[in-house]
């Protein structure tokens, strides 16, 4: 009931905001974002494995009241690699995982040692913010394989004050080990990890406010609790690359005593893709058994415990905002709320876990409140974690060294203003100019699952995926290292139940017909493009059948070409990939690219994304042909079309 009222209120609020947009534009022009002082403070709350698609935000009333209703929510925000450590490294460096080569949790493929050996400890966000005069603070989990043995070789750079959770105790809710500044690690047996994080966060906030008062130095404070991650016992102290399902036990997250009794009747939302009767997806996902009652009950309990652990975070949102308000600096502080990657429980029959390119794993919360940011607004521009470092830099008027290429771009936090710091180049002039409709999602190696029915490792599950959201299309396209393909039309199939790609279809075989109800927009898209051999007569959008896509489909050719550029993109190529294919700039979106005059170019001119072997990490030789720019749409042809 309360939620119904909330959603009605929310709907009205959105409508109201929509009606107000025009007058607001004028008002905002008179009151630009610089209403924030030149150097605003930034508070970043980063949770661990928090879902957007299992409704976790609905159980956080303070988050709703202080951030969602007082700030803007970016509904199409994505991580680019759905695994803690690689995702965090991409977030802190502004680089795609294929450019950090931190692709996993542990060496040699990932973890803190890999972050250091790749040279990022000298060159990542906090270092740049410090150089720009910010005091930087961090409390909680930074990376994986950041351990009681390696925390000082070297210390994580760039923090004015830090208090890190360290492996192998990072995920012990009741036996955490923290390591402050350059001190020795301290064990907190018996204390509740997130309560300790909150206390330490307040300590750093006090320091930050003091430095602001005394020396006029702004701050960047990150609070990164482990909630709602599972409770993990890591058995091997030395985190080597020899990970097996014996090296860690992943149990349900443990709530604080005061929250243990909450949400007793709550269960994982029974969306159509929850433990479905028909298996879906490719590869190992298609082979998962349906979960029995006992398994489902165990997973529901897991879910309730996640919501309970988030209550401490929700309390913290309230207490940190109160402190900012008390200090009189709330109006000059940006507050960001997000998580490293999403999470899934039971969708597509999966046990608790992440790492796939399904929406549950990659589409994550991003809520921003601060000076000049519209209140209660939902924004639908496609943004990713690699955009966060550029966004923070833009707010702080800071920059990396010129040789350092960021793969993301600053998010226009208000639809009404060119840039938050008056720097027009930093942000597209308006949302209409936001070039990004794509997300390049990557994964390498082993996909793990958690809990007593999980604890399985699925090796050889490297993939490249493309999530693309435009006005008339909303698609997920995945290519696994087995060369299996998946294509989901998320307008008609938001739960990703019907794989439209017919992997088994030999080019000359007759096409299969899929029976599904599809929306008019996607029907128009799919029917108007021969996805395979067009055997049917003229497109009928009320028909309950259409052809499956295949390697021969013009749409797939476009998606392949885009992914081809993205899989090794660097810098501007990652945000403006069509420019690589069409250097003249004539094609700037999938819509433009779908023009039939380019059919031949896409069908025959560009190599296809494919793998020759499944690897544990980013072994370039096994990832097929690479984009080198020589296949760009021929200039002369383009001239001819003008
Ligand atoms: C807590 O961690 C310490 C090591 O830091 C260990 O010695 C102790 O046995 C642990 N206690 C529990 C209850 O697991
Ligand atoms: C994990 O361990 C179990 C034994 O506990 C074993 O049967 C299973 O094959 C292992 N699974 C993997 C490698 O994922
Ligand atoms: C499509 O929708 C109609 C009613 O809207 C329903 O009767 C029919 O069963 C649906 N078909 C499929 C394949 O879902
Ligand atoms: C398309 O299908 C028709 C009829 O099934 C067949 O005659 C034709 O050869 C096919 N064309 C291609 C290009 O596969
Ligand atoms: C994973 O792939 C590698 C290389 O293709 C192969 O040697 C290995 O046998 C595969 N392992 C499994 C468990 O499929
Ligand atoms: C990524 O790191 C791995 C492990 O060190 C290495 O084998 C691989 O060559 C690197 N990949 C690239 C593209 O540099």
Major sheet summary line: 10 strands, mixed
Low-confidence stretches: 1-35, 422-431, 505-517, 528-547
CATH topology of the largest domain: Alkaline Phosphatase, subunit A
Average of pLDDT = 86
Q: What is the top-level CATH class of the largest domain?
A: Alpha Beta
Name the ligand types: 2-acetamido-2-deoxy-beta-D-glucopyranose
How many domains? The number is 2
Structure annotation, total helices? 18
Please tell me how large the radius of gyration is: 24 Å
Number of beta-strand segments: 22
Strand-residue fraction? 15-25%
Helix coverage percent: 25-40%
Span of the ends, CA to CA: 58 Å
**Structural class, please?**
alpha/beta
Shape: globular
Signal peptide: 1-26
Enzyme class: hydrolase
InterPro entries: Alkaline_phosphatase_core_sf, Arylsulfatase, Sulfatase_CS, Sulfatase_N
Family: Belongs to the sulfatase family.
Describe this structure as you would to a colleague.
Strand 16 and strand 17 form a beta hairpin. The protein has two domains: 45-440, 3-Layer(aba) Sandwich (Alkaline Phosphatase, subunit A); 470-640, no CATH class. It contains 18 helices and 22 strands. It is globular and about 65 Å long. The model is unreliable at 1-35, 422-431, 505-517 and 528-547 (pLDDT under 50). With 642 residues, it is of the alpha/beta class. The chain has a ten-stranded mixed β-sheet with strand order 7-6-5-4-8-1-11-12-2-13, with helices on both faces. A four-stranded antiparallel β-sheet has the order 15-18-19-20, covered by helices on one side. It is 29% helix and 15% strand. The site of one 2-acetamido-2-deoxy-beta-D-glucopyranose (NAG) has 4 residues, from loops. One 2-acetamido-2-deoxy-beta-D-glucopyranose (NAG) binds at residues 169, 175, 177, 187, 189.
């Amino acid at each position: 009931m309360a939620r119904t009222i909330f959603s009605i209120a929310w709907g009205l609020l959105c409508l109201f905001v929509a009606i107000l947009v025009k007058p607001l534009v004028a008002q905002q022009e008179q009151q630009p974002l610089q209403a924030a002082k030149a150097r605003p403070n930034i508070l970043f709350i980063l949770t661990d494995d928090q879902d957007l698609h299992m409704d976790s935000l609905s159980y956080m009333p303070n988050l709703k009241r202080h951030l969602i209703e007082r700030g803007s929510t970016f509904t199409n925000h994505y991580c680019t690699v759905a695994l803690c450590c690689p995702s965090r490294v991409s977030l802190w460096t502004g680089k795609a995982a294929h450019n950090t080569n931190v692709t996993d949790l542990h060496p040699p493929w990932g973890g803190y040692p890999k972050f250091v050996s790749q040279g990022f400890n000298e060159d990542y966000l906090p270092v740049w913010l410090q150089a720009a005069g910010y005091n930087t603070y961090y409390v909680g989990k930074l990376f994986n394989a950041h351990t009681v043995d390696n925390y000082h070789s070297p210390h994580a750079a760039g923090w004015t004050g830090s208090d890190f959770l360290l492996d192998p105790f990072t995920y012990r809710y009741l036996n955490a080990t923290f390591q402050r500044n350059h001190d020795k690690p301290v064990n907190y047996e018996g204390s509740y990890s997130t309560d300790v994080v909150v206390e330490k966060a307040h300590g750093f906030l006090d320091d930050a406010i003091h430095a602001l008062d005394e020396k006029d130095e702004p701050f960047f404070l990150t609070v990164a609790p482990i909630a709602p991650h599972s409770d993990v016992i890591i058995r091997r102290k030395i985190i080597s690359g020899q990970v097996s399902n014996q090296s860690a036990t992943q149990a349900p997250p443990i709530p604080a005593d005061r929250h243990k009794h909450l949400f007793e009747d709550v269960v994982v939302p029974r969306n159509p893709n929850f433990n479905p009767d028909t298996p879906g997806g490719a590869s190992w996902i298609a082979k998962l058994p349906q979960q029995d009652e006992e398994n489902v009950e165990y997973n529901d309990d897991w879910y309730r415990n996640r919501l309970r652990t988030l209550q401490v975070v929700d309390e913290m949102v309230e207490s940190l905002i109160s402190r900012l308000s008390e200090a009189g600096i709330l109006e000059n502080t940006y507050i960001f709320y997000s998580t490293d990657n999403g999470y899934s429980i039971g969708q597509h029959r999966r046990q608790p876990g992440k790492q796939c390119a399904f929406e549950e794993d990659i589409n994550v919360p991003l809520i921003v409140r601060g000076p000049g940011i519209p209140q209660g607004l939902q924004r639908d521009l496609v943004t990713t974690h690699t955009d966060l470092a550029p966004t923070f830099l833009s707010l702080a008027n800071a920059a990396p060294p010129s040789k350092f290429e960021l793969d993301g771009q600053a998010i226009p936090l208000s639809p009404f203003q060119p840039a938050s710091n008056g720097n027009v180049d930093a942000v597209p002039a308006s949302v209409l100019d936001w070039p990004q409709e794509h997300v390049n999602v990557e994964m390498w190696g082993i996909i793990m699952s958690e809990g007593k029915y999980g604890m399985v490792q699925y090796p050889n599950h490297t993939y490249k995926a493309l999530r693309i959201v435009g006005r008339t299309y909303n698609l997920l396209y995945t290519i696994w290292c087995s060369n299996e393909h998946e294509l989901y039309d998320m307008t008609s199939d938001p739960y990703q139940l019907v794989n439209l790609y017919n992997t088994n279809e030999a080019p000359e075989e007759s096409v299969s017909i899929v029976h599904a109800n599809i929306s008019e927009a996607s029907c128009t898209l799919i029917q108007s493009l021969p996805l395979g051999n067009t055997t049917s007569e003229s497109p009928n959008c009320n028909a309950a059948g259409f052809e499956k896509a295949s390697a021969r489909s013009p749409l797939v050719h476009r998606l392949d070409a885009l992914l081809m550029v993205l899989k090794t993109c660097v810098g501007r190529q990652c945000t403006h990939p069509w420019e690589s294919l069409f250097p003249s700039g004539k094609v700037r979106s999938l819509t433009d690219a779908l023009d039939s005059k380019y059919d031949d170019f896409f069908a025959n001119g560009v190599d296809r994304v494919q793998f020759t072997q499944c690897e544990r990490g980013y072994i370039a030789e096994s990832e097929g042909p690479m984009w080198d720019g020589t296949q760009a749409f021929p200039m002369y042809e383009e001239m001819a079309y003008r």
